[in-house]
Write a structure and sequence with these properties.
This protein is mainly alpha-helical. The chain has helices spanning 5-8, 36-48, 50-59, 62-88, 92-97, 99-122, and strands at residues 13-16, 19-22. The protein has 6 helices and 2 strands; from the N terminus they run H-E-E-H-H-H-H-H. The longest helix is centred in the middle third of the chain and has 27 residues, at 62-88.
């Protein structure tokens, strides 16, 4: 009997009942937590980019892809917040003088930075 392409490439089969089932396993990956940004992007991939999601999943690169994207998004978010607070004059002095105003402005800055990160990294590809 001629070997299948899978067997020629070094794949093995195991018998289950009357059938020969190929032994398939994903490569092992180091476990790193996927943060908020990675989870958002994963949800986006599952819902709107199913082919890309499937390709990353079956190649074993999904987890490392999501952890790298999460790191990029966090760096971008913190950099944007820092730049916006400096540009708009939101400082520790304002926090000491008028806490409610400081909270209002910081929430505004964080929301804008979140929208930018979502548009640039999370919900685009």
């Amino acid at each position: 009997m001629e070997k299948s392409l899978f067997a020629q490439m070094g794949g093995t089969y195991e018998q289950q009942g009357d059938y020969m089932i190929p032994c398939l396993a994903l490569p092992t990956q180091e476990e790193q937590p996927i943060g908020m940004w990675g989870q958002r992007h994963l949800r986006y991939l599952r819902q709107y980019r199913k082919i890309l999601y499937t390709n990353l999943l079956t190649s074993g690169k999904l987890h490392s892809y999501l952890t790298e994207l999460n790191k990029q998004a966090e760096d971008m978010f913190f950099r944007l917040v820092k730049q916006m607070t400096e540009r708009e004059g939101v400082s520790e002095q304002l926090k000491a003088e008028n806490q409610m105003e400081w909270v209002r402005r910081m929430n505004n800055i964080r929301n804008r930075a979140t929208e930018i990160v979502n548009a640039e990294l999370i919900f685009s590809i």
